[in-house]
Amino acid sequence: MMSFFSLVLTFFITICCILLLRPLALRLDLIDTPDIRKQHQGNIPLIGGLAMLMGLLVGLLTLPISLQNYRSFIAGSTLLVFVGMLDDFQELSPKSRFFAQIAAVLLMIFWGNVYIKHLGNLIFFKDIYLGYYTSLIVTLIAGLGIINAINMIDGIDGLAGTLVLVELILLIYAANITQQFSAMLILLLLASCVLGFICFNFPFFARAHAQIFMGDAGSMLLGFGLVWFLIELSQSKIRPITPVTMLWVMSIPLFDATAVMLHRLIKGQSMVFSDRQHGHHVLLELKFFPLQIIILFGCTNFVLGLIGLCAFYYQFNESIMFISFLILFVIYFFVVNYYRNSLIKK
After folding, report:
1. Half-sphere exposure of residue 71, counting CA atoms within 13 Å on the CB side?
2. What residues make up the domain containing 298?
3. 286-289 contacts, C-beta under 8 A, 24 or more apart
4. pLDDT in tens, 141-184
5. Phi, psi of 120 (to 5 degrees)
6. How far is CA 158 from CA 107, 201, 243, 292, in A?
7. Would you give the distance in Å from CA 266 to the centre of its chain?
8. CA–CA gap between residue 119 and residue 137 (Å, rounded)
9. Which of 33, 146, 186, 253 is such that its CA lies 20 to 30 A from the CA of 215?
């Protein structure tokens, strides 16, 4: 009963914070304005991240579990939202954001003791266990990769929120079947925050565009939340989910971010170069409506994540699942590249 109360409270606190912060953000000029790369309508307040953090913190205080193991999660989340808000307000350098992300991941590793110790059986022979320093490097790369993947997919009203919600639902199911109930409760709170945010960000039929954006604060908060629980659930000593399953859960953001990075590398562009080369931008150029793209990406991510979880549940070969994931990525990369190039030729 207390857990249900926490979920409802988190949802309504998030909504109340949005309603209170929105007019303040407009007065303080904490807004996102349209430009060549950002083609939304009007000045949109960037307060989604702060509102979700407030909802999450209040909800955590009411949970019937000890938060001792999650203090570094709270600290890292707060740090990223603070730096993200500064960035949204006065545009910090990419280095500043990068160092904040590194700090949050290091808090997770050294204070939270959450890091990648093994990769599972990816090469048909045996489980791959990492040495201490290799483990730290792999965790840092994975953490930064996922945080930035969520930031990069946030290019259409409602898209990032929907994908994160789908991934949280998949992780909630994963935590439930492996009986990791503390993680499941916090994942439910995160999902409740995101749902409250989506109420103001999703392009509903009666509303042409979003009323708020999550901003860098929100994308880093949600990315960090996903990183934490992807690693916690896959590295647990009690019935861990296989690491390859987590790739399937995060399929669309990972496909898109990796494809864009490869495209920039091939073109000799900077890795932090902002452009409109993402899969959702290509679909927009092909005259897809935003709602169609959200449904397509959301359903695809859900189906692929479910395939990954079913493969884990029925103990399907991890190496085959890893190779299948790589094949799907190659297909995604070449399909997006084909349509991107066909649009350039026009």
Report:
1. 5
2. 1-345
3. 286/339, 286/343
4. 999 999 999 999 998 999 999 999 999 999 999 999 999 999 99
5. 80, -170
6. 30, 5, 28, 11
7. 25
8. 13
9. 186
As for how many domains the chain has, the answer is 1
Asked whether the beta carbons of 282 and 340 are under 8 A apart, the reply is: yes
Look up residue 66 and give its two tokens: 């000890």
Angle between helices 132-153 and 251-267 (to 10 degrees): 90
What is d(CA 103, CA 115) in angstroms, rounded to the nearest whole number? 14
d(CA 68, CA 71): 6
Among residues 320, 172, 171, 303, which one has the least CA distance to residue 246? 171
Q: What are the tens digits of pLDDT across the range 42-55?
A: 689 999 999 999 99
CA-nearest of 78, 84, 226 to 149 is 226
| Tokens encoding 104 | 């949050």
Torsion sign over Cα 234, 112, 47, 216: negative
CA angle 108-325-113, nearest 5°?
15
Region for 237 from its dihedrals, namely left if φ exceeds 0, alpha if ψ lies in -120 to 50, beta otherwise: alpha
pTM of the model: 0.95
pLDDT of residue 274: 73
